[in-house]
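FIELD: query
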Amino acid sequence: MTTPKFPDNFLWGGATAANQLEGAYNEGGRGLSVQDVMPNGLMSAPTPEPTEENLKLEGIDFYHRYPEDIALMAEMGFKVFRISIAWSRIFPNGDDAQPNEEGLQFYDDLFDELHKHGMEPLVTLSHYEPPLNLARKYRGWIDRDVIAFFEKYARTVFERYQNKVKYWLTFNEVNSIISAPANGAIFEDEIEVSLADKWQAAHHQLVASALATKIAKEINPDMQVGCMVISMPTYSMTPDPKDQLAVRDFMNENYAFTDIHARGVYPGYLKRHLREAGIEIKFGEQDARILKENTVDFISFSYYVSLVQAHNPQNYQTAAGNIFRGIPNPYLEASEWGWQIDPIGLRLVLNDFWDRYQLPLFIVENGLGAKDELIADGADSFTVADDYRIDYLKAHLQQVGEAIEDGVELLGYTSWGPIDLVSMSTAQMSKRYGFIYVDRDDNGQGSLNRYKKHSFHWYKEVIETNGASLYNN
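FIELD: result
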């Protein structure tokens, strides 16, 4: 057995989303986003207007405190920091004639701060935060007009930041839109939104993603554009071939999005699935060509859990997952929120994606949400003894090293939520992921002071040793 070695240019860092940490929802010319009326998480019903209970309105005040936070990331040695641009900071209504200069300048300053500390920005164009006006006026991504609005937004930020940002992602967890239509700014009741509507919205996002890739290459061929999907390895409940087929069907619905991004065509299994569901995607005249000619440079993904599937799921209880659900795996433990912990699943995902596409991969989300307890660390300081988080991340990163030894080409790893932020799935502060504790609770109370957890120092050593410390006893 050889000790795995991470590439010399491996991009270590962390990942965030604008709507979960920026705050300042009504400052700097920013318009409302769909997240501003979703106080209870991604799968919840929206409210008519923003309400005080929505912790995302203030987030962790990154908008005003980002120099302090970036300095902490730099202290850990980050090579890359994943953020998203809040679309409604650039085009407050989504369909505006001109961009908001104050919003553009904010990200100019943010990228400059990252570069000052030697960090590459990894930027998501749309991270579950389309402008609210697009949901109310256009039915979100169901309406084809939204493609043109996204195209204009992408061109604006690509031109502005072409010399400051090398790595771009188009849509966060793009394969979530069927299960979580709010990702596509679709707010109607499930009764009103048909499966055909959801797939049409997904098609529009896929075309928009390809167009963004095309625009980026026209502006600066050195820019690298990737897709971003939820990865969720799925095991068969039994050796019954029917269960094996259930696994294949579940996996195909997720693979469809990476297949289209990486290969540029709708796969045969998806065409059959849509046909048998009575769904006919309305293609624009140039859509097929746009998809085929503008495939991604790399594939990025989130990884938190694995699932189990069976052909008769009604005979089993359901387990929680990151948007998708399945059957509990009796061989795995679960987090406080019921997400099953499977480090080996990450190695499987990496090998599956690499074998399938032979494109560079990027793990852009992975982490453990837990209830942390702030404790005294000397007379005037506090910390969190989060050895459970260290154990989780160490086990996962060891499997990443194994995948690299398997031959997988991996660009980097950005842990989810390197600083505590508002949870996307539950909209809580108490579901904490960070190496840095933020003093704010589920009622919005707290000083917003930042404190280094034990995992802060652990991750710093991992980066300093380029992963070698993962294999120390």
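FIELD: remark
The longest helix spans residues 195-219.
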